[in-house]
What does this fold into?
Amino acid sequence: MAGWNADNAAGPTGLGAVTLVEGSSFCISLQNGDIFAHHPHGVFYRDTRILSRWCLTVNGQELEPLGAWTPSPFRATYIGRAVRADGRADSPLTVVRSRELGSGLLEDITIRNYSQQPAACDVALSVDADFADLFEVKDGRFHRQWEQTRRSEDGSLKIGAVWQGVRNGVIIRAQGCTVSEDGLAFNATIPAQGQWVVRIVAMPDWDGAEGLLHHPAADTASPQDIRQQAWFATVPEVTMGNPSVQRTMLRSHADLGALRIVDPNHPERMVAAAGAPWFMALFGRDSLLSSSMILPLDASLALGTLQTLADLQGSAEDVLTEEQPGRILHEVRFGVGTGLALGGKSAYYGSVDATPLFVALLGEVSRWGVSAQDIAALLPHADRALDWIRDYGDKDGDGFVEYERLNDQGLINQGWKDSWDGINFADGRLAEAPIALCEVQGYVYSAFIARAWMAHDAGDGHLAAELQDRAARLKKRFNEAFWLPERGYYAVALDRDKRPVDACASNMGHCLWSGIVDADKAQQVADRLMSPEMFSGWGVRTLATDMGAYNPVSYHNGSVWPHDNALIVAGLMRYGFVKEAQLLSSALLEAAEYTDNRLPELFCGFSRDECPEPLPYPTACSPQAWASAAPVMLLRSLLRYEAHVSLGGLWMDPVLPESWGSMHGENAPVGTARVTVDISGTRTVVEGLPEGMVFHRGTRPPLDNFSELEILRRKVARRRDG
It folds into this structure.
């Protein structure tokens, strides 16, 4: 089960690597478009590398890269120059490779001749497929040798492979080619001042059934374009006064659309894959948080994620996969290696936070107006999740949810900082399991509150009161056990001996988001998060600079994660720290300007004074669902934009930074309606609310303020009764 108990940072893809993503497929190549197996490159389909070599040569020479760009998440253009055999740099031939990713790969190759004379060219594309499992490629360890066949058939190259009864294959096609053992070859004559064009298609051939990759004529949209256009038609169209902020929001929306994957058993359900290149799969924590962060943008992604995770919810005890009744999974994979490691299964359940986040998200989608029928179908799963929290999450009965892996191959740390060294004391010593993370207690608190509100809406006052009481008792115990008064912040965790793990970490920002922080402690938490030790100038670090394990180039011990910061901003806004939230939000979006307006999974924690631009983390995923959702979450938080359909209200009290300019949003989903929002200075206008809903210029009372919300509920009931 090495795939789980590994360094969870993605392996390096090489300097300047270009990554494309479409659904669960992804492609990694060099700047000139070539793919080599000795790099962690390839075209991947269902967690398997179906192309491990894709190398173009002209007259026996590889292309000199001139530039590459990605006009959409699933499309790239590479421009290179043919190199003369004698090495001279004055070749008149340029090569444009236009690539589109679907379930396979389409590539249009155009060679342009700028000479006054025609040019005879031997064009060759060497192709190979090792069908390596994604984890094998990521970790650079190859354990299986497929029995491979290569044959020419109807002008196509077919590569097939068998290993212990498992069959994989890929088909490569092009017009006018000669198929050889190495790949495809073309004898081309490019006219003077003219060009030569060829289209090459590679398709997965799974178990003898050819995979489909439909590519229409050049003047019509591809399936990938149609899918993306449908996504943009569904989500709100947001226009910001600041052009850079606008570009970041558009990039965020586009990447989120491309990162959607489909439940094969339910094609109507979309879920968010965690991120490219190595995590193009359903992850419990990542998919739940990402769809929660963008809920005002699109509720269908959250609902699809909940429904899919509910179908896969734990039903038995399994030490190998760490499955337990009611537990929400950590990760689903399809590769052969994963299935073998997990005893023929594809799901691993070693996550401590996915289960409470499941309940919290269900409560949130119910407030945003997802149908009562869909909510009712998921409620039994929420109750089973709460049973897991009681029976398995809190095995020692101390009121806190802890984790400890069930076998020596599972994840050592099972919260969002899941690297082996992610949880440590102030002096750098590693904490030992069972470990109770501070933010997980906040997620459990949110789960209790969420389920209480769903009970309220269903008229079950007894259950609502019981869950309110559980939440209140947890909050009291948490603030007694985790608060470090001499340091002015919360311990990141309790260790196996119930000692506070006293490192100053960003996790406590999530506690602000959940509302588990006592009001009299919030100021100190905010001050510490925005201190020079924590705030780099680009974002809040995962670990303070004065901690023993701090390293600005560490995955979880000093780096800056956009999603982490977006949740911190939401927490700061919850407790009224507007200026701090504005500063942090603006810093993150300024950082995005250095990465083509796409926030990566993480970047290094060097201070802005030390480095004039955010330094990229070498193996960061990009695009990545959390990071792509972060700009949406920042905007949502600074708008103070909340809906509660059962209370008949939409709340908004914008505090956008002046530098962001005005905002216009259309097609924003609220219940069964689509609303338009205009914000300019202090003016806010909302149009199109569904019947029975009222716009409130202000902030909604916190969900754990049941008395104030009950007064509001009664007012709504009286209004509806006339």
Q: What stands out?
A: The chain is about 30% helix and 25% strand. The chain has two domains: 18-222, 235-644.
